[in-house]
């Protein structure tokens, strides 16, 4: 069911500083920050030859990554995103398999303009998984 690795996300306390680090020190191609209020984050994408790194900074009072950063003030790897051919079918299979789909269970449009879902980290070896419609 899961296909390509779409991105690995890193939550950071200061997305401008992290962007400068990736652009300057690591010589990477870094996008401009994009605010996603519906997801409670500001994102930046770093394009690599074989996948992307997503930098995330909390946006607003109810950011879903706020507590993660409280626990990890320097930041840390936040989630992995796999692509799936059919996110609806994937969701149905996962629910049948007993996995917890976060939020309402309905896909929301993510940073790439595609439907995404999140699976509870406690169900997948402590790793927060995002699924994105390929
Ligand atoms: C969609 C736009 C963009 C894109 O790529 O397109 C994005 O990726 S936006 C990314 C930000 N949005 C989300 O992460 C939505 C899904 N996440 C959530 O709903 C929450 O972050 C949740 C429920 C996973 C955790 O929320 P919170 O930390 O407030 O809850 P708890 O403190 O109760 O945590 C429960 C339990 O899970 C552990 N945890 C939390 N976050 C992570 C994580 N990123 N990786 C692994 N484990 C995580 C936390 O430590 C708790 O464990 P416990 O042993 O009970 O202490
Ligand atoms: Co993501």
From TrEMBL:
Catalytic reactions on record: (R)-methylmalonyl-CoA = (S)-methylmalonyl-CoA
Gene Ontology MF, one: metal ion binding
Keywords: Cobalt, Isomerase, Metal-binding
EC number: 5.1.99.1
Any matching Pfam family: Glyoxalase_4
Methyltransferase found in the keyword field: no
Cited Gene3D superfamilies: 2,3-Dihydroxybiphenyl 1,2-Dioxygenase, domain 1 (3.10.180.10)
Domain VOC: 4-134
One GO term (biological process): L-methylmalonyl-CoA metabolic process
InterPro entries: Glyas_Bleomycin-R_OHBP_Dase, MeMalonyl-CoA_epimerase, MMCE/EMCE_epimerase, VOC_core
Database matches in PROSITE patterns: VOC (PS51819)
Uppermost EC category: isomerase
Protein name in UniProt: methylmalonyl-CoA epimerase
Upper taxonomic lineage: Bacteria, Pseudomonadati, Pseudomonadota, Alphaproteobacteria, Hyphomicrobiales
């Amino acid at each position: 069911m899961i296909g390509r690795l779409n991105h690995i996300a890193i939550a950071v306390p200061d997305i401008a500083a992290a962007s400068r680090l990736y652009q300057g020190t690591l010589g990477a191609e870094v996008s401009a920050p994009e605010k996603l209020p519906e997801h409670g984050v500001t994102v930046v994408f770093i394009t690599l030859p074989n996948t992307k790194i997503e930098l995330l900074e909390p946006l607003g009072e109810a950011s879903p990554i706020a507590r993660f950063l409280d626990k990890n003030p320097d930041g840390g790897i936040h989630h992995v995103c796999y692509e799936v051919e059919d996110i609806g079918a994937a969701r149905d299979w996962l629910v049948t398999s007993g996995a917890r789909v976060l939020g309402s269970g309905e896909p929301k449009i993510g940073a790439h303009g595609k439907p995404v879902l999140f699976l509870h980290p406690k169900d997948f070896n402590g790793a927060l998984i995002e699924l994105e419609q390929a």
